[in-house]
Amino acid sequence: MSIKFQDVQAVFPRGSFTACALTLFLTACGGGGGGGNNNQPAAAAPPPPPPPVTSVAVAPATLDFGKVVIGDTVGGTAVVSNTGETTISVVLPALGDGFAEAANDCVDVAPDEDCSVTIEFTPTEQIAYVSNFTVTVDTEELDLSLTGEGQGLNVEIASIDQTCPGGDFDAGFIVTRSNGTTASNLRTDNLTAYLDGVEVDLTGVVLEDLSDRVPVAVAVVLDQSGSLDGSYDLLTDATSIFIDSLEDIDRAALYKFGSEIDFANSQEFVDADVPGKDALDAALYGDFNESASNSKVWDSAFRVAIEIADEIIERRYLILLTDGLDNPFDPATSRSLDDLIAILNENAISAFPIGFGDVDPGPLQRLADETGGLFFSDPDADTLNEAFEQISSTFSDRYYIEIANPGGAAELLLNVIDDVGREGEDTVSLPTCP
Question: Domain of 378?
Answer without folding.
Answer: 216-393
